[in-house]
Design goal:
Length: about 220
């Protein structure tokens, strides 16, 4: 899915953003039930973090190319979280969808935390990156408890990730860092939160309050 977004960026000379008609829980949509929230939020986190958008809302949530199919409904909590995710995408569109260059940063974690840079892997936190003239942006997405890496969560079985508290990451930088902040649709309504940092030469250590589904870390120079 990420490769599709990146290929589309390149084919359009980086002038167009991708909208994916990615129908979630497709195999489950032939009977009445509810959309599986963890699958939807993880997929949206990956799409939005890589500059894409998701065609998923109509008169109801779309799980099938036959738009009249409304077998799967959104629970109240899922509706609220989807609103938070779309508010977040709009609020931070300047770092999500407006320029910059996709990058893979070498991010490492502490406390036996596995970080997979640039590629989603079950059992790990995945990082995606984008660099700008005066800032680097790192997205952390929590696949630590993922029981499937099938991005459409076709059968609606993706499980909710456990929250990770007291997260610390390290990476190399090439300039003096002025400040670091975090924003997440899962935390404090998406507001920017200043982070504690320590820089020694080109080594940067950042303390994060936690991670549920998706954190966006912005490093300003």
């Amino acid at each position: 899915m990420v490769k599709i977004i990146q290929d589309n960026d390149r084919f359009s000379n980086y002038n167009k953003n991708t909208v994916l008609a990615a129908y979630m829980n497709y195999a489950k949509s032939n009977q009445a039930g509810f959309v599986n929230e963890p699958g939807v939020l993880l997929t949206n986190a990956v799409i939005f973090a890589n500059g894409g958008a998701h065609l998923e809302m109509g008169e109801h949530y779309l799980t099938n190319e036959y738009f009249a199919n409304n077998n799967l409904q959104l629970k109240g909590t899922t509706k609220e979280k989807l609103i938070q995710y779309y508010d977040f995408m709009v609020a931070y569109q300047n770092v999500l969808r407006d320029g910059g260059t996709a990058a893979v940063f070498s991010v490492t974690g502490t406390n036996a935390l596995t970080i997979s840079n640039g590629k989603a892997r079950s059992g790990s936190i995945t990082s995606y990156g984008r660099y700008f003239a005066n800032r680097d942006v790192i997205h952390l997405i929590n696949f630590k408890d993922a029981n499937t890496m099938e991005w459409r969560d076709t059968n609606g079985t993706q499980q909710e990730p456990s929250s990770i508290d007291g997260l610390q990451i390290k990476l190399d930088v090439t300039r003096t860092v002025k400040r670091v902040w975090l924003a997440s649709p899962d935390m404090q309504g998406g507001v920017a939160i200043p982070l504690t940092k320590a820089q020694t030469g080109n080594k940067l250590t950042i303390d994060l309050p936690g991670l549920k589904y998706w954190d966006m870390v912005v490093i300003e120079y």
